[in-house]
Amino acid sequence: MAYYFCRFLNSKPPHKSSSLLRSLNHSVRSFSAPAMSPPATAIVYHQEGPPDSVTKMVELPPVEIKQNDVCVKMLAAPINPSDINRIQGVYPVKPQMPAVGGFEGVGEVHSIGSAVKGLSPGDLVIPCPPSFGTWQTYVVKEQSVWHKVDNRTPVGYAATVFVNPLTALKMLEDFVDLKQGDAIVQNGATSMVGQCIMQLARIRGIRSINIIRDRAGSDAAREKLKSLGADEVYTESQLEVKNVKSLLGHIPEPALGLNCVGGNAASLVIKFLRRGGTMVTYGGMSKKPITVSTSSFIFKELSLRGFYLQNFMTSSRAEECKSSIDYLLGLMREGKLTYDMEFAPLDDFHLALDKSLGKLGSQPKQVIKF
Amino acid sequence: MAYYFCRFLNSKPPHKSSSLLRSLNHSVRSFSAPAMSPPATAIVYHQEGPPDSVTKMVELPPVEIKQNDVCVKMLAAPINPSDINRIQGVYPVKPQMPAVGGFEGVGEVHSIGSAVKGLSPGDLVIPCPPSFGTWQTYVVKEQSVWHKVDNRTPVGYAATVFVNPLTALKMLEDFVDLKQGDAIVQNGATSMVGQCIMQLARIRGIRSINIIRDRAGSDAAREKLKSLGADEVYTESQLEVKNVKSLLGHIPEPALGLNCVGGNAASLVIKFLRRGGTMVTYGGMSKKPITVSTSSFIFKELSLRGFYLQNFMTSSRAEECKSSIDYLLGLMREGKLTYDMEFAPLDDFHLALDKSLGKLGSQPKQVIKF
């Protein structure tokens, strides 16, 4: 964060002689490392508002690389719905303005400060936990921000591993003690998190019931999700039956429900849950609230909870977070966890943004490639 | 349970000579104990339906007191809303028909089976956990059903300690780790559970915010609740403000909310809760569902759960249950936990039932005195 302010508030480079002096006082490695980052091209917004009108591509001047800093040449960063919401001003945690967009991504170490150990130019790194400002060609942040990942990881997956796949993994792990043979139910199943959930469930021997919207192409969507490992896929209208549990067949009543839609789609998740089950809400795509009967709480003993990724940004969970990321990247390298994405060069950012905003119909996840 | 069926299905007393033989084979104490209970007067229903039409007062024949049985002369038993709902057939757990009404109560040991130890005639006992059929003058059940309580306990409190005060205590203890100085918020605050909650909270140094209905007499109700220890009392209409938290003053944001109403009154509880707070639903007096926004789960990180007293009926929690009951009865004997009740002789059962059904306006808890 402080970095961007420095870029904006102090556009003159720091005093050359002092920076040269600092370099001379350090080791050969630090001496050979540049004390300043290259200039960067960035997607910046000066105020919250409609993302397609408030974001601009700008050139930012070089910034100093302090002794604990790492300068990373960004390789790829996605446009997530949460990035869009953050620019719109929906979230309670706000960056200071002006701000660079983006929250997760992957890059290659370009140069390091004199005190940095364990990272070398060419290493593949992700900010872990992520932080504001990945939509730019060079990012300078303290070493502690960067998590080195296996260089063989495809950059598209490394760029997108945190916000969606980690949400899927943590929701499967942190709320209900699921065992092989158990079942889960989710709505919004075609979303990237939804696709990760069904694949991670399948790897654990957990059955998944997946609810999707009624729309043209829902048959193709069903086949696609089944090929990823979904056990059952229903459109909302297919669940307009007296007792949804009559559809379960050999699948046990689910212990965990995942809701990113709200409204009727949330009610359907609740109907599937077994006594004592838990529904975790992590999104509200329909913009409708969740309505629950009293008897769901008293007789069915349901728990309704929420998942907020921000809670994994605390230092106390940093190691857990990194080991989860490594696990997910391993699955991705083995081809066991996949999803669609489309790369867009930075120059085409606004086209990719329009696609992410849904202006051009249903599109795969847009990932900026720098 | 088995006992009632025996009364109904086998109205002939068991074979006299075998029972005499059994008595002769045991100690002096068992020899002196009667092998048969007295006949009983009971409130019985043969089918579920409107309580005022399906319940009848009937005479039941004596039943055998087996070696582990205790025959208890009932002294008092309340008419709880849950008793009414059970007769109406609302609950998933149903007694077999015909059934004797009532679920909790207190009595005095009348006679004991030959193998019973630790209970003597004259002891004050409650069924703990409670079980179907306390609306009768004599009850015969196994010793393990009966929990001996201090003989100095007023019978009205001993008769009513389980269903409402224990619900209040367990909701305060089992969901959120409340500390002195913390706060809770509840709706339905004039209910018996509500009154217990505010008193138990006060004893622990926990502040209570109490929401009541708008109705004639709400000022008097407020004063009454404040005299019991309520910190703040609001009618629902007083909470039609932009930000209910502006009313908190020196009271911290509550960590625990208790909901027995649903609808708008539940939404008000949710509005008061602090980030990460929990709302526990234990009733739905308005018959309206609970509506929750997505952001309550994600950004406010609320948990919504339910309380079902039936879960305390399991043998694994029997000791916890008895120690909680003893704690509550101790507070009652010390005058620290009080509530209003009205005693009605068994002959006036149907008048007391009408009062409990709300046919005669707001009335105190009706307790049958045998």
From TrEMBL, chains A, B:
Keywords: Fatty acid biosynthesis, Fatty acid metabolism, Lipid biosynthesis, Lipid metabolism, Mitochondrion, NADP, Oxidoreductase, Transit peptide
Enzyme Commission numbers on file: 1.3.1.104
A GO biological process held by the record: fatty acid biosynthetic process
EC class (word): oxidoreductase
Enoyl reductase (ER) domain: residues covered: 49-368
SUPFAM superfamilies noted in UniProt: GroES-like, NAD(P)-binding Rossmann-fold domains
Subcellular compartments: Mitochondrion
Pfam families assigned to the protein according to its UniProt record, in alphabetical order: ADH_N (PF08240), ADH_zinc_N (PF00107)
GO MF, any single term: enoyl-[acyl-carrier-protein] reductase (NADPH) activity
Reaction equation(s) it catalyzes: a 2,3-saturated acyl-[ACP] + NADP(+) = a (2E)-enoyl-[ACP] + NADPH + H(+)
Family, as annotated: Belongs to the zinc-containing alcohol dehydrogenase family. Quinone oxidoreductase subfamily.
Listed PANTHER family: ENOYL-[ACYL-CARRIER-PROTEIN] REDUCTASE, MITOCHONDRIAL (PTHR43981)
Name by which UniProt lists this protein: Enoyl-[acyl-carrier-protein] reductase, mitochondrial
Organism encoding this protein: Daucus carota subsp. sativus
